[in-house]
């Protein structure tokens, strides 16, 4: 491929050297450079790609995309100076892989909670409707039945366009993808063509990365600002910031809600452990998903399917048979008549949602025992709040470790304990070893009780000092429930 073929749409501030040259690959990592590669010098949080330019040229890079013209110019190399290398990377990655997003109906889902659930149900729904479909999500990526492990919620532009190209080659017409706020700030979706965008909700999270809540809102909003004319922007109008997302968008503005007036209005008729009975567009339907937050997710899915021109009754019938994403309010089967639940909730809002859902549908006499931790090297402000929410909504709480990473687990637990009020102290235990914590919860439970293991969901590891040790909440809970007499 020629360099000039991938430059379409890139705003160039300065060009040194020729553009009619063959290129062998695109990369933003000096450690992956091969002969004839284009190297993108990206300014990151830990290092600045500009410092690796000479090293990449020595390794064979013949084109450098950078933000300043280097002092030292190699006459064999082409230098392209742009305002923002990450933006150029997105556009050029799209061009390099043949702009696959424009051959698909690509729908992006953003928000603090619910992205994976909404994207996964949409994927399952469109597969059941008979379409070749792609999924890009935190749990896994999928091209029809082929599963591709996920490393990020939203992959980098090269991995992303490669995935989208595979989808096009395998006949997909739809793709549902999660759009994280990190991806927006780092321009990972630059150059993609979206058919629509969906907003679930926004609550405090990722403030370690965005610094302020306002920045976090702006990052989410920038996705809707970037949607093209002719696409749709579907928002949750019950969320305080739902309508903010639509302020500057050129897309067709649509809403879903349970409380406010909306284009797609859903009402809860009944909310039980076996599922949700909802009224959608004057039709009563029973769904296998549990909890009022899933009523929002189903409203988003229904609205999206309608905006993509699908038949209402067919959609509702198929949706009523679907289950959600792995590790989201997932029940662990056991013979002890204990309701064992594993849930990915790792934000104060998600923990409150799961526990209030349990509270709404419990009979009343059973105990709710919650096992919960907070990640190391991540937003510390969440720690006391998550402990407080867990205590306020449970009969017993066991504070434990959850990916301590490079931090001391006991220090994280001490910061969580700050959120435990003197009255709640009696019902709280702190057990740093996660397996021991789950074991203790099983020993405390009586038949009929509910155990919630929060935070890890589908993830099958504990990250301790950069090493990922196998740990599966579902596996441990099942094993321990079966061991109790
Ligand atoms: C905070 C963050 O998002 N970091 C991402 C970022 O890394 P960085 O800015 O720290 O990169 P850096 O190490 O400073 O390096 C800067 C540049 O120099 C290059 N470099 C670096 C070293 C070297 O020897 N040679 C070299 O060329 C790097 O390739 C990079 O281009 O750019 C990297 C390349 O794209 C990403 O892999 C990395 O994601 C890290 C691994 C990560 O964990 N990100 C998470 C937080 C994330 O993105 N999460 C969201 C989901 C959030 C949620 O909703 O839960 C996601 O979408 O997955
Ligand atoms: N619409 C919703 N509103 C609030 N909480 C939700 C909603 N949907 C799911 N949750 C809760 O949040 C947890 C994470 O759900 P999900 O994985 O779908 O969200 P996500 O946005 O993909 O999260 P992440 O970005 O952290 O992967 C679930 O386990 C559930 O407890």
TrEMBL record:
<feature type="domain" description="Mur ligase N-terminal catalytic">
    <location>
        <begin position="23"/>
        <end position="97"/>
    </location>
</feature>
<feature type="binding site">
    <location>
        <position position="378"/>
    </location>
    <ligand>
        <name>meso-2,6-diaminopimelate</name>
    </ligand>
</feature>
<keyword id="KW-0436">Ligase</keyword>
<feature type="binding site">
    <location>
        <position position="30"/>
    </location>
    <ligand>
        <name>UDP-N-acetyl-alpha-D-muramoyl-L-alanyl-D-glutamate</name>
    </ligand>
</feature>
<dbReference type="InterPro" id="IPR004101">
    <property type="entry name" value="Mur_ligase_C"/>
</dbReference>
<feature type="binding site">
    <location>
        <begin position="111"/>
        <end position="117"/>
    </location>
    <ligand>
        <name>ATP</name>
    </ligand>
</feature>
<keyword id="KW-0133">Cell shape</keyword>
<dbReference type="GO" id="GO:0000287">
    <property type="term" value="F:magnesium ion binding"/>
</dbReference>
<feature type="binding site">
    <location>
        <position position="459"/>
    </location>
    <ligand>
        <name>meso-2,6-diaminopimelate</name>
    </ligand>
</feature>
<keyword id="KW-0573">Peptidoglycan synthesis</keyword>
<comment type="pathway">
    <text>Cell wall biogenesis; peptidoglycan biosynthesis.</text>
</comment>
<keyword id="KW-0131">Cell cycle</keyword>
<dbReference type="InterPro" id="IPR013221">
    <property type="entry name" value="Mur_ligase_cen"/>
</dbReference>
<feature type="modified residue" description="N6-carboxylysine">
    <location>
        <position position="220"/>
    </location>
</feature>
<keyword id="KW-0067">ATP-binding</keyword>
<feature type="binding site">
    <location>
        <position position="180"/>
    </location>
    <ligand>
        <name>UDP-N-acetyl-alpha-D-muramoyl-L-alanyl-D-glutamate</name>
    </ligand>
</feature>
<feature type="domain" description="Mur ligase C-terminal">
    <location>
        <begin position="327"/>
        <end position="457"/>
    </location>
</feature>
<keyword id="KW-0963">Cytoplasm</keyword>
<dbReference type="GO" id="GO:0008765">
    <property type="term" value="F:UDP-N-acetylmuramoylalanyl-D-glutamate-2,6-diaminopimelate ligase activity"/>
</dbReference>
<comment type="similarity">
    <text>Belongs to the MurCDEF family. MurE subfamily.</text>
</comment>
<dbReference type="Pfam" id="PF08245">
    <property type="entry name" value="Mur_ligase_M"/>
</dbReference>
<dbReference type="GO" id="GO:0051301">
    <property type="term" value="P:cell division"/>
</dbReference>
<dbReference type="GO" id="GO:0009252">
    <property type="term" value="P:peptidoglycan biosynthetic process"/>
</dbReference>
<feature type="binding site">
    <location>
        <position position="188"/>
    </location>
    <ligand>
        <name>UDP-N-acetyl-alpha-D-muramoyl-L-alanyl-D-glutamate</name>
    </ligand>
</feature>
<feature type="binding site">
    <location>
        <position position="455"/>
    </location>
    <ligand>
        <name>meso-2,6-diaminopimelate</name>
    </ligand>
</feature>
<dbReference type="Pfam" id="PF01225">
    <property type="entry name" value="Mur_ligase"/>
</dbReference>
<keyword id="KW-0547">Nucleotide-binding</keyword>
<feature type="short sequence motif" description="Meso-diaminopimelate recognition motif">
    <location>
        <begin position="402"/>
        <end position="405"/>
    </location>
</feature>
<feature type="binding site">
    <location>
        <begin position="153"/>
        <end position="154"/>
    </location>
    <ligand>
        <name>UDP-N-acetyl-alpha-D-muramoyl-L-alanyl-D-glutamate</name>
    </ligand>
</feature>
<protein>
    <recommendedName>
        <fullName>UDP-N-acetylmuramoyl-L-alanyl-D-glutamate--2,6-diaminopimelate ligase</fullName>
        <ecNumber>6.3.2.13</ecNumber>
    </recommendedName>
</protein>
<dbReference type="Pfam" id="PF02875">
    <property type="entry name" value="Mur_ligase_C"/>
</dbReference>
<dbReference type="InterPro" id="IPR036615">
    <property type="entry name" value="Mur_ligase_C_dom_sf"/>
</dbReference>
<feature type="binding site">
    <location>
        <position position="186"/>
    </location>
    <ligand>
        <name>UDP-N-acetyl-alpha-D-muramoyl-L-alanyl-D-glutamate</name>
    </ligand>
</feature>
<dbReference type="GO" id="GO:0005737">
    <property type="term" value="C:cytoplasm"/>
</dbReference>
<feature type="domain" description="Mur ligase central">
    <location>
        <begin position="109"/>
        <end position="304"/>
    </location>
</feature>
<dbReference type="GO" id="GO:0008360">
    <property type="term" value="P:regulation of cell shape"/>
</dbReference>
<dbReference type="GO" id="GO:0005524">
    <property type="term" value="F:ATP binding"/>
</dbReference>
<dbReference type="InterPro" id="IPR005761">
    <property type="entry name" value="UDP-N-AcMur-Glu-dNH2Pim_ligase"/>
</dbReference>
<dbReference type="InterPro" id="IPR036565">
    <property type="entry name" value="Mur-like_cat_sf"/>
</dbReference>
<dbReference type="InterPro" id="IPR000713">
    <property type="entry name" value="Mur_ligase_N"/>
</dbReference>
<feature type="binding site">
    <location>
        <begin position="402"/>
        <end position="405"/>
    </location>
    <ligand>
        <name>meso-2,6-diaminopimelate</name>
    </ligand>
</feature>
<keyword id="KW-0132">Cell division</keyword>
């Amino acid at each position: 491929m020629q360099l000039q073929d991938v430059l379409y749409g890139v705003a160039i501030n300065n060009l040194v050297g020729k553009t009619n040259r063959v290129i062998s690959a695109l990369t933003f990592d000096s450690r992956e450079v091969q002969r004839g590669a284009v190297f993108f010098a990206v300014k990151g949080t830990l290092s600045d790609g500009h410092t690796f330019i000479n090293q990449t040229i020595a390794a064979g890079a013949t084109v450098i995309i950078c933000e300043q013209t280097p002092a030292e110019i190699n006459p064999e190399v082409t230098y392209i100076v742009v305002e923002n290398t990450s933006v150029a990377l997105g556009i050029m990655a799209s061009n390099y892989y043949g702009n696959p997003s424009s051959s698909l109906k690509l729908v992006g889902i953003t928000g603090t909670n619910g992205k994976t659930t909404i994207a996964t149900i949409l994927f399952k729904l469109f597969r059941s409707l008979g379409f070749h479909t792609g999924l890009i999500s935190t749990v896994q990526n999928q091209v029809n039945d082929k599963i591709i492990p996920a490393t990020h919620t939203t992959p980098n532009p090269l991995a992303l366009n490669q995935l989208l190209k595979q989808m096009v080659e395998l006949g997909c017409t739809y793709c549902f993808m999660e759009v994280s706020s990190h991806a927006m700030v780092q321009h990972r979706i630059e150059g993609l063509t979206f058919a629509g965008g969906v907003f679930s909700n926004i609550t405090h999270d990722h403030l370690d990365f965005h610094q302020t809540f306002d920045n976090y809102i702006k990052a989410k909003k920038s996705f809707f600002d970037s949607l093209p004319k002719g696409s749709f922007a579907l928002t949750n109008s019950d969320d305080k910031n739902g309508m903010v997302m639509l302020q500057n968008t050129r897309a067709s503005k649509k809403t879903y809600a349970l409380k406010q007036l909306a284009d797609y209005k859903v009402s809860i008729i009944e909310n039980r452990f076996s599922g949700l009975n909802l009224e959608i567009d004057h039709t009563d339907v029973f769904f296998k998903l549990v909890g009022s937050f899933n009523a929002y997710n189903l409203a988003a899915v229904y609205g999206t399917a309608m905006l993509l021109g699908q038949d209402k009754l067919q959609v509702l019938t198929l949706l009523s048979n679907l289950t959600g994403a792995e590790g989201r309010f997932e029940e662990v089967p056991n013979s002890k008549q204990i309701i064992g639940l594993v849930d990915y909730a790792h934000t104060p809002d998600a923990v409150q949602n799961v526990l209030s859902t349990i509270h709404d549908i419990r009979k009343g006499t059973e105990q709710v025992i919650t096992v919960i931790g907070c990640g190391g090297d991540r937003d510390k402000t969440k720690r006391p709040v998550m402990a407080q929410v867990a205590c306020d909504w449970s009969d017993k709480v066991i504070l434990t470790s959850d990916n301590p990473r490079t931090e001391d687990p006991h220090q994280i637990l001490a910061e969580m304990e700050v959120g435990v009020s003197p009255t709640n102290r009696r019902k709280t235990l702190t057990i740093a070893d996660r397996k021991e914590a789950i074991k203790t919860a099983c020993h405390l439970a009586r038949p009929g009780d509910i155990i919630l293991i929060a935070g890890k969901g589908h993830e099958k590891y504990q990250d301790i000092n950069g090493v990922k040790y196998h740990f599966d909440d579902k596996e441990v809970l099942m094993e321990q429930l079966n061991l109790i007499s």
